[in-house]
Design a protein that fits this description.
Layout: H1 29-48, H2 63-72, H3 76-86, H4 94-106, H5 113-125, H6 134-150, H7 165-185, H8 197-210, H9 214-233, E1 235-236, E2 239-240, H10 249-253, H11 259-268, H12 281-286, H13 295-302, E3 308-315, E4 329-336, E5 340-344, E6 358-362, E7 373-377, H14 383-389, H15 399-402, E8 422-427, E9 430-436, E10 446-450, E11 455-459, E12 465-469, E13 472-478, E14 483-490, E15 498-508, E16 512-521, H16 528-536, E17 540-543, E18 549-553, E19 559-563, E20 569-570, E21 573-574, E22 583-584, E23 588-589, E24 596-601, E25 604-609, E26 614-619
Antiparallel strand pairs: 1-2, 3-4, 3-22, 4-5, 5-6, 6-7, 7-10, 8-9, 9-16, 10-15, 11-12, 12-13, 13-16, 14-15, 17-18, 18-19, 19-20, 20-21, 23-24, 24-25, 25-26
C-alpha cells in the first residue's frame, strides 16, 4: 500500500517535477481521500505562492491566483484591489466567464463590497460571446446559470443580454439539461478530449458545489462521475490515449502531455501532472474538496486485471452544412492490455481540425517526454470541411484557422485531423486503415507517425516494418510505396515555426492506400525474431484497386475482410454497428437513449440514473 508523504508546502517540489508516481493501488479509503486532498492542496499552495505572479505588485495577480488565494483565505485585501483593476477591462466569452464566476463565489464572504460590485457590473456592461463548440456552450451556460443564481430577481437592464435573472436562469437550465440528456443518450460530440475534459469537469464541479438547486447539484455530481468513469476507462497508467474527438500536435504524439493527465493525477494519483497543473486545472482545485471520486472509478483507473475490450458510441461535432445528419454516430473501439492499448473510430469526418482516428499507445513508467504512440492519417485540408462545421463566412478558410491556435491544419505533414477518405476497422490489437483519396485532393498522401522512442526499427523485405515500443512489439504494413521525412513539430497553438522533435513520418504518396498494424506483448514471444516470424506467417492478401481491400488472419486467429466502402467482416460475419450500445464492456455499460450508466470493477458497481437522478452503489455477489 502506498504511504503518504509529508504535507505539501510552497517550497516543496511540485509533482510535475517530482519522480513519477508508483501507480500502487491505495485500498484504504481514508488514505485515498487524504492523498487526494494533499494533491489538491499542493495545487493551491503552488499557485498562491507562484513566484511568477505573487510579488509585492498586485498588478501581477491573475484570476487563477486570486481564486487560489481566496480558496486558502490569503491576501484578501490584495485580491479585492486587484479584482477592481481587472474588472476595468473585462474579457468576454466562456473562458472569461467561468474564472469570473469562480472568484465571485469564492469571494462572496471575503472580497470587499467594491470588488464584488465591480464584478457584478461587468455582467451588465460587457457582452458575452457564447462561442461555437460544445465545451464553449457548457462553460457559457453553467457560468450564466450560477451568476444568475448569485444575483437573483434582478432586472433585464442589469444584464448584458437584456434578460432578467430569471430569464437567464431558465435559458441556462434548459441548455444544461439538454446537453446532459444528449450526452447520456447518444454521447458527446467532444468525446475523450485530451485537453477539453477540463472545460466540462470544471463547470460541473461548480454546479455541484454552488448551485442553490439540489437537482442541479446532483446533476453536476453525476456528470462528474460520468466524465471521470470514461477517463479512467480510456487511460493507460493514467495517460489518455486515442481515439480523440479533439487533441493537438503536442498531446497526439506525447500522449501524457495534456490536461487529461492532470485529472488522472489529481483524481487517481497514477501519472505526473503536466507543468503548471494544466493551467485550467487550477480552477478545479479551488473546490475539488467538494468531490470524491467513487472507489469503483478509482479502481478502473488503477487496478487493471486482465485485458478488456470496450465498444462505445459517441457522435460527431455538430454539422451546419453539406450533411443530411446533424451529428452522425461515431463507433469507438478500445482494447486495453497491461503493456499497451489500441483504440480507434471508424474514421471519416469527426472534427475537421483536431480529431484523432486511431493509435497504438504503449505504457511507460514515466511518460514525460515519451512519444509512446504510432498511427497513420490522411492530412486532409478543405474549405468544405470548415464550412460543414463552422458558421463563419467561408472566405477566411483555410488560412484563417492556422492563425487561431491550429497552426498545422494546412500542413501536408500534419499528424492531427480527420479525413472523409479514411476508413478504419479494429479487431482487438489489429488495425486496418484504408484510404481512397480522389484525384485533385489537397495533400494526396498519408502520413504514418513513427516515434523517436521506437527501438529495433526494421524494414523487412516482405514489406512489413517491425519495431518495439516499451514492452510492445509492433508490426506495421504499408500497402503502397513510401519514403521517410523528419517529423517537425509546432510547439504551441500560436507557433509560427516547426521544430525537429525526433521521430519521423512514413509518407506514402498514393491515392489508394492503407495501413495494417498488429501489436503484441513482448512477454508473448521468446524474442523479437520470433514475433517477426509469427507476423510473416499470417495469411495476408490485399489489393488497392478498384478500392483498397484487405483479407488477413490476425495473431489472435481472427479472419478479417475489409474493403473500402463496405462493411468489415470478422470470421465471415459482418460487423453490425446498429447494435452498438452507448457503452459496452466489462467496466462501462449503457444503452442508447437509456440515460443510465453502469460502472463496474470486480464486485463494485455504481449506477448513474439520469431518469431518476439517483446514484446507486452496490457490491455484486459472485
Amino acid at each position: 500500500m502506498a504511504t503518504l508523504t509529508t504535507a505539501v508546502t510552497v517550497s516543496a517540489q511540485p509533482a510535475f517535477d517530482a519522480p513519477a508516481p508508483s501507480g500502487e493501488v491505495m485500498a484504504d479509503a481514508s488514505l485515498r481521500r487524504a492523498a487526494y486532498l494533499q494533491r489538491v492542496n499542493e495545487v493551491l499552495e503552488w499557485k498562491a505562492g507562484d513566484r511568477r505572479v505573487a510579488t509585492d505588485d498586485p498588478a501581477n495577480l491573475d484570476m487563477a491566483t486570486i481564486a487560489t488565494k481566496l480558496a486558502l483565505g490569503q491576501d484578501v485585501e490584495q485580491c479585492s484591489a486587484r479584482v477592481i483593476e481587472i474588472m476595468k477591462d473585462p474579457g468576454t466569452g466562456p473562458f472569461w466567464m467561468f474564472p469570473n464566476v469562480c472568484v465571485a463565489y469564492l469571494g462572496r464572504d471575503l472580497l470587499s463590497a467594491e470588488a464584488k460590485a465591480a464584478m457584478r457590473d461587468t455582467w451588465r456592461t460587457t457582452r458575452q460571446l457564447r462561442g461555437d463548440t460544445e465545451n464553449h456552450w457548457v462553460m457559457y451556460y453553467a457560468s450564466l446559470y450560477l451568476i444568475s443564481e448569485l444575483y437573483p430577481n434582478e432586472a433585464a437592464d442589469t444584464w448584458y443580454n437584456g434578460r432578467s435573472s430569471s430569464e437567464n436562469l431558465a435559458e441556462s437550465r434548459a441548455f444544461l439539461l439538454d446537453w446532459m440528456n444528449t450526452t447520456t443518450t447518444v454521447g458527446q460530440g467532444e468525446f475523450n478530449p485530451t485537453h477539453y475534459i477540463g472545460e466540462y469537469a470544471i463547470p460541473m464541479l461548480f454546479l455541484a458545489s454552488w448551485s442553490k438547486d439540489p437537482e442541479m447539484q446532483q446533476r453536476g455530481h453525476m456528470m462528474l462521475d460520468w466524465l471521470f468513469a470514461e477517463l479512467a476507462n480510456n487511460t493507460l497508467s493514467g495517460v489518455l490515449r486515442g481515439p480523440n474527438s479533439r487533441t493537438d500536435e503536442g498531446s497526439v504524439i506525447e500522449r501524457w502531455n495534456a490536461l487529461a493527465s492532470y485529472f488522472s493525477w489529481i483524481l487517481f494519483g497514477n501519472t505526473p501532472p503536466t507543468k503548471g497543473y494544466g493551467g485550467w486545472g487550477i480552477y478545479f482545485a479551488t473546490v475539488a474538496k467538494n468531490y470524491e471520486v467513487p472507489e469503483v472509478i478509482y479502481r478502473i483507473a488503477t487496478d487493471r486485471q486482465g485485458d478488456y475490450l470496450q465498444r462505445d458510441r459517441a457522435r460527431t461535432r455538430r454539422r451546419w452544412r453539406y450533411s443530411d445528419e446533424l451529428s452522425p454516430p461515431v463507433y469507438k473501439t478500445n482494447y486495453l492490455r497491461h503493456d499497451y492499448a489500441v483504440g480507434s473510430t471508424q474514421g471519416g469526418r469527426i472534427d475537421p481540425i483536431q480529431s484523432h482516428a486511431w493509435d497504438v499507445t504503449w505504457a511507460e513508467a514515466d511518460p514525460r517526454g515519451q512519444h509512446n504512440t504510432l498511427f497513420s492519417l490522411h492530412p486532409h485540408s478543405s474549405s468544405v470541411a470548415m464550412q460543414m462545421y463552422f458558421v463563419a463566412y467561408p472566405e477566411p478558410w483555410i488560412k484563417g484557422v492556422t492563425f487561431e491556435g491550429k497552426p498545422s491544419y494546412d500542413s501536408p505533414d500534419k499528424v492531427v485531423g480527420s479525413s472523409p477518405y479514411e476508413q478504419v476497422f479494429q479487431d482487438l490489437d489489429t488495425v486496418i486503415a484504408l484510404y481512397n483519396i480522389p484525384e485533385g485532393t489537397r495533400f494526396p498522401h498519408i502520413n504514418g507517425f513513427f516515434s523517436k522512442d521506437l527501438v529495433n526499427l526494421t524494414e523487412d523485405k516482405s514489406g512489413w516494418i517491425f519495431a518495439q515500443g516499451g514492452q510492445a512489439y509492433i508490426a506495421y504494413r504499408p500497402l503502397a510505396g513510401y519514403h521517410w521525412i523528419p517529423y517537425l513539430h509546432y510547439s504551441g497553438g500560436w507557433a509560427k515555426e516547426k521544430l525537429p522533435l525526433g521521430g519521423q513520418l512514413l509518407t506514402s504518396p498514393h491515392l489508394q492506400n492503407g495501413t495494417i498494424v498488429q501489436v503484441a506483448a513482448v512477454s508473448e514471444f521468446k524474442s523479437f525474431d520470433e514475433f517477426k516470424g509469427a507476423i510473416l506467417a499470417l495469411p495476408l492478401e490485399f489489393s488497392l484497386a478498384p478500392e483498397p481491400s484487405v483479407t488477413m488472419t490476425t495473431l489472435r486467429g481472427h479472419k478479417l475482410s475489409f474493403t473500402y466502402g463496405q462493411t468489415p467482416m470478422v470470421n465471415g460475419e459482418p460487423v453490425d454497428y446498429s447494435k452498438w450500445k452507448l457503452f459496452e464492456g466489462p467496466r462501462l455499460n449503457a444503452e442508447i437513449g437509456g440515460r443510465k450508466l453502469t460502472i463496474t470493477h470486480g464486485s463494485l458497481q455504481r449506477i448513474l440514473d439520469f431518469n431518476t437522478l439517483t446514484i446507486a452503489d452496490s457490491v455484486i455477489q459472485p
